[in-house]
Amino acid sequence: MNTTSIVLAGGRSSRLGKAKHNETIAGKSLIERTIDKLSPLSAEILIVISERQSKSAFSSYSPAKTVVDLYPEKGPLAGIYTGLVHSSNDRNLAVACDMPFLNTALLHYMIDISTDFDVVIPRIGDYREPLHAVYSQSCLRPLEDLLNKDSLKISDLLDLVRVRYMEKDEIERFDPRHLSFFNINTSADLEKARMLASQETEGMIQRHSQARNTSEGQGK
Predict the structure, then answer these.
(1) Number of C-beta neighbours around residue 182 at 10 A
(2) Domain CATH for 42
(3) Residue 202 forms part of a structural domain
(4) What pLDDT digit, counting tens, does each position of 79-95 carry?
(5) Which helix (H) or strand (E) holds 127?
(6) Are residues 136 and 114 in contact, defined by beta-carbon separation less than 8 angstroms?
(7) What phi and psi, each to the nearest 5 degrees, are found at residue 3?
(8) Phi, psi for residue 146 in degrees, rounded to 5
């Protein structure tokens, strides 16, 4: 529980055309789903928003605290930096607010293996997931230097710190379909997420029904 979770919610949602965090999937908003997944892993949860957003719009998302970007309009690196500045813990799990299928077991594993590293980040082939990663407080100084120089690529940071890449085979022990990294950019993505969530719910109901029938059968 000595981990802070940082939820990055300051994006413009330009392709979707409306605020992502309010969109509902399986009866909950995206940000509520995110907080639900992070709560068992977190001593605190921080929501990082942009200066154009209102804190009051996020006030109902207990137990999270909302903070405003310290480097406006400088993208995800600025959001991660802002979260680290406000964090009370060395270990920090940073995720985007538009990932509806976070996997708690996978996130827990990432935290567990982060002790000797500045960053733990999933990597599938050449593609890295910086908005589904663990960052330590030791990233603060290099992040600040990069932001002041307008060097805003995640690769710029990863060249300066100790990185533990979590590779495809490790990821698939927890998440064979890589749904953890599914994010909402367009209306089509949103509809696909709703379909996947519906299938997930149906599967849970079926498994529960099968388990109940097995238990009843054994009791006879």
Answers:
(1) 16
(2) 3.90.550.10
(3) no
(4) 999 999 999 999 999 99
(5) strand 127-128
(6) yes
(7) -135, 135
(8) -65, -45
d(CA 202, CA 98): 22
Dist CA 51 CA 60 (whole Å): 18
Residue 181 forms part of a structural domain:
yes
What Rg do the C-alpha atoms of the chain give, in angstroms? Answer: 18
Q: Would 155 be classed as within a structural domain?
A: yes
Q: How far apart are CA 5 and CA 91, in angstroms?
A: 9
Residue 214 lies in a domain: no
| Residue 217, burial from CB neighbour count under 10 angstroms (0-12, 13-18, 19+) | exposed
pLDDT at position 206 is: 45
Token look-up 């509806």 returns: 100
Question: Do 93 and 5 touch, CB atoms closer than 8 A?
Answer: yes
* Token representation of residue 139: 């990233």
* Number of CB atoms found within 10 A of residue 61's CB: 19
pTM: 0.88
Regions of the chain short of the pLDDT cut 50: 203-209, 211, 213-214
Dihedral over alpha carbons 146, 151, 155, 159 (to 10 degrees): -40
Q: What are the CA-CA distances from residue 134 to residues 87, 147, 220 (Å)?
A: 13, 19, 49
Give the count of domains, the chain. Answer: 1
The residue range of the domain holding 62 is 3-186
Dist CA 22 CA 8 (whole Å):
14
